[in-house]
Specification:
The protein is α/β, with parallel strands linked by helices. It contains 12 helices and 11 strands. The strands form 2 sheets. A 7-stranded mixed beta sheet has the order 1-2-3-4-6-8-11, with helices on both faces. The longest helix is centred in the C-terminal third of the chain and has 16 residues, at 204-219. The structure holds octanoyl-coenzyme A.
């Protein structure tokens, strides 16, 4: 087993399986620009590495990831968000050809829940909580939340989650088909690694083409929706409500929205 440490990630290699750990524990693994750059580069490198056949993506027991980094976005306007277009690179995760398994414990919120939904399978701990709480900070999901969540759990459930920002439990997520299964917190990672190991014993060529074929079904009509969602997300950065919502989060108080 070999471990490599980056600024915001750790990477473990064990046989054919690589495990990538999101590693900003004090910020509940909030996805800042630096972490996303490292993540995309690492996943692409593993995708091209013939010694690796399956990838597990995880955080720690307290959080998979509590969303995109709110501090980084709070002051940006729409033009700035469009100029940065930092979320476009999330598409490169969608294009990873090897199986990607999320091992989720604790918070998987906002961009964290969206990152999880970029993965092909999800093993959750009993303590996992899922949500798209962007509405509470005056914005909306921007990296597939409105699209992938709707496909996974259906319109009325996705609508309630996206419009209220309420979290759902691991058991609820399992019942609604958002995760493959729920296991005790002590074994969420080992269970995901076991699944990765099982898949890595299959023909890697067959696995790659089978994943591609499932995604052909899953992704039909998805891409237009993703683009539409991202534009609406950027648009909201010209509202006073976005400034108030994110400022309120930073100041640890309830936001007061005025529809401006
Ligand atoms: N960004 C930045 N910092 C964060 C984030 C975040 N998303 N989440 C938590 N933190 C920080 C907190 O500020 C806090 O820092 P400090 O200790 O310095 O005050 C630390 O992590 C611990 O958090 P809390 O003290 O709040 O811990 P609690 O246990 O009280 O609460 C919660 C945990 C409920 C998870 C709470 O932290 C929370 O509500 N976090 C924000 C969740 C959220 O709104 N996520 C959505 C963010 S927006 C987003 O993801 C948009 C995605 C767009 C994707 C791309 C579009 C194109």
């Amino acid at each position: 087993m070999a471990m490599t440490t980056f600024q915001y990630l750790k990477l473990e290699r064990d046989g054919f399986v690589a495990t990538v750990f999101l590693n900003r524990p004090k910020q509940l693994n909030a996805l800042n620009l630096g972490m996303m750059n490292e993540l995309v580069a690492t996943l692409e490198e593993l995708d091209h590495d013939d010694t690796i056949r399956a990838i597990v993506l995880t955080g720690d027991a307290r959080a998979f990831a509590a969303g995109a980094d709110i501090m980084e976005m709070a002051d940006a306007d729409s033009t700035e968000m469009l100029r940065r277009d930092q979320f476009a690179k999330w598409d490169r995760i969608r294009r990873i050809k090897k199986p990607l398994i999320a091992a989720v414990s604790g918070f998987a919120l906002g961009g964290g829940c969206e990152l999880m939904m970029h993965c092909d399978m999800v093993i959750a701990s009993e303590t996992a909580q899922f949500g798209q709480p962007e509405i509470k900070i005056g914005v909306m999901p921007g990296a597939g939340g409105t699209q992938r969540l709707t496909r996974a759990i259906g319109k009325v459930r996705a609508m309630e989650m996206v419009l209220t920002g309420k979290f759902i439990s691991a058991r609820q997520a399992e019942a609604w088909g958002l995760v493959n299964r729920v296991v005790p917190v002590e074994c969420f990672l080992s269970e995901a690694q076991k699944l990765a190991c099982e898949i890595s014993e299959m023909s890697p060529i067959a696995v790659k083409l089978a994943k591609e074929a499932v995604n052909k079904n899953y992704e039909s009509f998805l891409l237009d929706g993703l683009e539409f969602e991202r534009k609406n997300f950027y648009l909201l950065f010209n509202t006073e409500d976005q400034k108030e919502g994110m400022k309120a989060f930073i100041e640890k108080r309830k936001a007061e929205f005025r529809g401006k």
